[in-house]
Amino acid sequence: MIRVLLADDQVLVRAGFRALLDAQPDIEVAGEAADGQEAVALVRETSPDLVLMDIRMPVLDGLAATRRLTGDPRLAAVKVVMLTTFELDEYVFEALRSGASGFLVKDTEPEELVRAVRAVVGGDALLSPGVTRRLIEEFAARSKQPAAAEELARLTEREREVMALVGLGLSNEEIARRLVVSPLTAKTHVSRTMVKLGARDRAQLVVLAYESGLVRPGWLG
Known about the structure:
The protein is globular. It is of the alpha/beta class. It contains ten helices and five strands. Helix 3 links the parallel strand 3 (50-54) and strand 4 (79-84). Residues 148-213 form the HTH luxR-type domain.
């Protein structure tokens, strides 16, 4: 079973998500939190697979709560997906930088929410849709200037190429087609790159691609 924690200060939002997720044969809601502080405490208590975390909450907001969770080595297996009200949320890129595995708008279609939960727990990040690529581009443009990244020296030329494609929002299948290799080979390159850079997940790899200067805003293929 995939265990999900819901963190949102709106009771109706939590109730709607709970009804949808609990109806799935392979998903169960492990708990609910009305603010970030409560969410952090519940995650430490219940160790869910995934947290659906609203960005704007009282007491402790979703960004601060996410940083606490992703900064705790004991919770390394817990994934966080941020919930936003609008697609162009000013905090989306900061959420990815804080360790979130992706984000969803609250009015997303029910089947998309379920697919997203399964995808993130399975190791993917919510970074392939076109709207996400535009968001990453926009917020990366506002981020700090790329610093010289010594970490990139650890990568082979092919791994840097793969990392750049991940940074553009391409899936493993799209990377495989671009490089004319098998999806399994593309996945292996992505995994090795993440290990070498100590990236928590694919979303963090995207952030590193921008912050290292390997990918620049506007380089969408």
